[in-house]
Predict the 3D structure of the following.
Amino acid sequence: MANPRGFLEYTRKERDERNPIERINDWNEYTLRHDDKDLKEQSARCMDCGTPFCHTGMEWERSSIGCPINNLIPEWNELVHQGKWKVALDRLEMTNNFPEFTGRVCPAPCEGSCTLAINDDPVTIKSIENEIIERGFENGWVTPTPPSFRTGKKVAIIGSGPAGLAAADELNKAGHSVTVFERDDRPGGLLMYGIPNMKLEKETIERRVKLLEEEGITFTCNTEVGVDISREKLQEEYDAVILCTGAQQPRDLPVKDRDSKGIHFAMDYLTDATKSLNNDEEPTITAEGKDVIVIGGGDTGADCVATALRQKCKSVVQFGKHPELPQDRASDNPWPHTPMTFSLEYGYEEAFKQTKKDPREYEIMTQSFNTTSEGNVKSLKTIQVRKEKVDGRIITKDLPGTEKEWPAQLVLIAIGFTGPEREILEHFNLETTERGMVWTEPSTYKTSIEGVFTAGDARRGQSLVVWAIREGREAASEVNKYLNSLSHSAQTG
C-alpha cells in the first residue's frame, strides 16, 4: 500500500459538478475532473484489503456484488497514487475494453462493495477509473493496435451497444474479421441514443468507434436485420453471428386514453433528443413550454427529467410506485450488496435548484389520461398506493381519497422493458426463456441456432453497461472457441 493510513487521513471527495442552473442551458457533461492532489488523496483511501470485494464481480439475490468485469481496482489505485499513470492504464485495459464509458455512466457496484463502505464512505473508484483512461488518450497511450494476423474467419455482430462493441473488440484482437450491423445512423446503441449527452458526450463514443475502425472492425449502419439483410444472408456470408440487440421492447401502460397524442415511451423521447442534437435540427418530440410527467422512477426517467429541463419545459414531475429510499442501508440491504439508498441525481438536483422542490412523487400510480377534443393529452389522474405484505407476498393497494389530477401536455413512459423486440427473435426463429429473453445453453452464449450466439440485455434482460461489456467479452470467448473448432474440423476432415 502506498499509504497505509490513507483511509484514515482523507475523506471521500466527489468530482466537482458544473453549476446546475448554468448547465441546464447546454448539453455538455455535468461532471468535472479531479485535480492531481485530489487523485493522489482519493486513491490513497484504497485499503488494498485481503479480500477486495470491489472486483468480486458476481450477482447475489439480483444485486451486483463488486465489478462485473473484475477490474483490478486496488492495483491501479496504488499506481495512480504513485503517479504511474501508464502502468495503471495497462492494468485497467486488461479487464475493461471501454473505461471511458463505465467511468461516466456505470452506477459503480464496485463502490457499494468497497470494504470501506461497511462503516464509511467508499473509495471514489469510478472517477479514478475515468481519469486513467482520459489521461491515456491525452498522452497518446491509447492507439490503434490491429491484429498481426487474420484467421480467415468472419463474424457478424448485430447491434453496436456495449455488448456488441466489446465482442467485436475481443474477436478482432483474436484475428477474426468482424462486421457490426447497426440499424441506427451511428454506432453506439444504448450508449449513443439511450444515455443523454449530459452523462456521456457523443464525441467520447465516436473517439472509441474510430479507434475500433482503425483496428480493422467494419461498422455498417442504417441496416436492420430482417429488413435490409436476412438471417440466411448473414449465415451464408459469416462463420458466426452474435445478437447484441438489447432488450428494447418497452413495457406499456394500458390505461384509459393511452393512445392520446403527446404520450411517448421514454426511450423514443431520449433518442429523438439526441438525434436532433447530432443532426443540428429541431426535435420531433419536445418538452418546451409543456407540463411534463415522467412515469417511472428509474434512471431512464431521471434522464427524461434532465432532458425536459434543457428543452425548457414549464414543469416536470416524475412518478414512482415505490416509497422514498432510506438515507442509510436497510436491514435487508446489507454490505456488500449495492446500496439502495436515497440520492439526488443530477437531473433531480437541477430541478430542485430551479423549483426548490424534488421532482419525484413516490407511491403513486397513474389511473387514466384525459384528452382534448383534438386528441392531445391534457392531464392524467393518479392515486396514492401503499405496499403491504400479505401471505408472504408484496401487494400494492390503492388508498381511497388520494386521487389527484395533474396537468400534462407531454407524458413519458419509463416503466422498464419486457425483453428483446419480437421481430428479431421471430426472424431468427430463436428459442426464448420464460421471461422472453434469448435462450442460451447453460454456461455458454450459444442460442438454439447453430453458429448464432447472443450477449448483453438480449440474453440477461435490462441491465448495466458494465454487465453488457462482460457479456460481450465472454460471448467473444465462446465464439472464438467455436471458430477454432471449425478450423480444426476443416484440417482433420
